[in-house]
Amino acid sequence: MERAFVTLCLMTVCCAEALAAASVICFEAKCQFRMELRRETTMSYRTPNGTLMVRMNGTQMQLIDNEFSSGRVGVGAFVDPNDVNSADGLVRDVFTINGKFPGPTFEVLKNAEVEVIVTNKLFTEATAVHFHGLYQAGTIWMDGVPGITQHAIISGQTFTYRFNAQPAGTHWYHSHYFNQRLDGLFGMFIVHEVAPVQPYFVLSVLDWYHVTANHFETTSPFTNNGPGHGFAHDTTRRQSHDGLQLSTVKYVSGLINGRGRNKYPTPLSDFKLVPEEENVFMMCHTGSEYGYEVSIDGHMLTVTAMGEDPIVPTQADFLLVSPGECYEFTVIAQRGSFWMRAKIFQDPRLADVPEVNAIVHTGVHREPQSAERNCTWEYNCTVFNCPFKGYAEEFHRECITIDQVRTKTEVLLQTEATPSVLFLNFGFGIGCSVNARQWVEPEKPMFCNDPLQYTHCPDDCSAVECRCPYTVNLTEGTPAILVLSSVVYHPDKHAAPHPIHLHGQVMEILQAGYPEYNHTTGHHTTPNQDVKCRDEVCSEPYWSAGEFPDFQNQVGPTKDTVVVPAYGYVIVRLRVLNPGYWAMHCHQETHLDEGMRLQVYVEGNIPEIPDPYVYEWLCIEPPAPNGSKFDGTSSNTYEHTPIPTFQPNGLASSSYDTATIVIMTVLIGIVFIFIVIVVRRCRRSDNNLLSFQNDLVNSGEDEELLPNCEASN
Ligand SMILES: [Cu+2]
């Protein structure tokens, strides 16, 4: 234990040295952290006399005036690069957490009771923080999804997240308020199984843009907020090895732990490893659009976990990581200085592949001269987590796909219950959608009374465009199998790989299916045939490969974000069904923003919201439309506004079907008969209606609005 403690202290120093965003470590049973969210600017520096801007003078950072003042105190001085959120050197707005971009890394031990006090010091924005990869077992209301599990934290207010640190693994936190995380509202969150004894390093890798999240959205031609033209229309679309377009957004830049390089020699992140020992890296892709192929020159990576449970250690030259995914890998550090490279998945035959770098070294930090891995006939490289079956032969690369990964903790599922099976297709049938249902927020959060009344989606979305809070039901205690696909009705329709993230539980990977590919070009050819679509928009995918597989005696590795291959599928099982309302969505930002999201409702013993009074006003229904005075306490029932349905030609649907007409006719008949009976009984009564009303007025009773013939007798 003493050895562990000494190593731990050393590592704290080591990590603080290595990381732009320092770690905040708490290995107690109870941990309290604070987050202060602010808007700041990259390449700026806070002095006692206000903020000054920073420019690169050679490789040093020097203070300069900002654009609306001059001759300020401190101008001309050189500052420590560790005190500047430099990003890639370009000046733009960012979020900082406790003054840092990205936010600090929080580290705890498994099962710790964690309290995170978030204070919103942004000028005009509300926010909420989601802890990505944490179970939130029994703490659904701490999941940080505004409009679903909480009201957003408005400017000036504080919200405290309380949860248990499970599962152990490499996780992160980020704003779940629309696309806010694009501006830097994120950081890493590590749950250690036990206090670590090996040297370890935490890193985030992300694609980075030179416009803010707002601009990103207001000029995107794809979001359902409304059309625009601009940034997202990339005219030089980058293609993946399998021939698919990588993103509709133009790639600009990338960062490792908040540092990268664009036009200026800004400092890079560096990791000082212990030579000839096993060093652990805990990494998440915290970006938005482009996946990365991560490698370290001169080193093999041994992948040991995919966010949660350990896997059978697997060696690879390259590790592919998509937005939302997390991995742990180890390297035996060689002496010297080496490049860590994160290159986008792009096919290098079409254009140079952009990469973001960090420095891995064992002594003096200097710019490495190391060469990139060379894959040849003699040395075939191994790529971990390919979203396709294989590369073109000329690249000399072998794929390890997700279905080939083996878990280290083989625990068979012990249950008599037959799992429920759900098919979810992530596609573009009506724009980004799931089973041809494009997500819009429910009118009320899920902590209001009878929340499922706000989640209606049409049953049949094959011929109408469904834009609604798509919710699927599961039951606590019954395992569920989800078939996550990215398939199309016609093979010439566009499909894409999607990193699908599920809140509140982990997905156990059971099986995957990929399209065939051309071994010369590397491009996909015949789509996988196991999962098919019944209709043009794939509103109801189904299993077409005979009897659905039985996974009773199978155990798979777990993940909270899994890449569903284009023209293929991944089958996952949910074991520990945590009651609540759990978001499930693509973690590629433009897909998510446009509506590739649904909600998994796990029916069961959902805990009470900790402080309902904070939220009560959100759940109050609007006044009844009959003009009666609304005092805020009435129990008026509120009719849910029907979701407008549209026919494919865009005209509103107005015709009733036959069943509706029959039901309405029967109802009118019943009401008519009821009125006749009431009138006849009232006439028989000794007290007629007039005397009843007189009595009512005289007695001052005003609750009863309808005459009750029985009571007045
Ligand atoms: Cu997607």
From TrEMBL:
Query: What GO biological process terms does the UniProt entry carry, in alphabetical order?
Result: iron ion transport
Pfam families attached here?
Cu-oxidase, Cu-oxidase_2, Cu-oxidase_3
Would you indicate the residue range of the signal peptide?
1-16
UniProt KW keywords:
Copper, Membrane, Metal-binding, Oxidoreductase, Signal, Transmembrane, Transmembrane helix
Tell me its family: Belongs to the multicopper oxidase family.
Domain (Plastocyanin-like) ranges? 84-193, 202-347, 493-603
Q: Which GO terms describe its cellular component?
A: plasma membrane
Q: Which GO terms describe its molecular function?
A: copper ion binding; oxidoreductase activity
* Chain ranges passing through the membrane: 659-679
Q: Which CDD domains match?
A: CuRO_1_tcLCC2_insect_like
Protein name stated in the entry: Plastocyanin-like domain-containing protein
